Amino acid sequence: MAKAREGRTDIAVAIVALAAEAAELETRVTALRKELVDVDRHMTAVSAALDRLSPA
């Protein structure tokens, strides 16, 4: 009986740890998506500047 209880506790601890890690990963994914938007804007601006420098 004690082993069964211990096993349930281990599972609960693992679930809590995985949920915390998932939350951290979601936060990181959101930050990376925002950074990608910034990179895309910068690439667009650089591309437009290069187009203006090229002879038509």
Question: Would you write up a description of this structure?
Answer:
The protein has 56 residues and is mostly helical. The chain has 1 helix and no strands.
Mean of residue pLDDT? 92
Helix amount? over 70%
Cα shape:
rod-shaped
Rg, Å, rounded: 24 Å
Number of strands: 0
Give the helix tally. Answer: 1
Rounded to the nearest angstrom, the distance between the terminal CA atoms is 82 Å
- Element string (H = helix, E = strand): H
Largest sheet: none
- What structural category characterises the helix and strand content? mainly alpha
Strand content: under 5%
> Which ranges are low-confidence, i.e. pLDDT below 50, for 5 or more consecutive residues?
none
Task: List the main descriptive attributes of the protein structure presented here.
single chain; 56 residues; mainly alpha; 1 helix
Set down the secondary structure blueprint:
Blueprint: H1 2-53
In summary, what is this structure?
By secondary structure, the protein is an all-alpha fold. It is built from one helix and no strands.
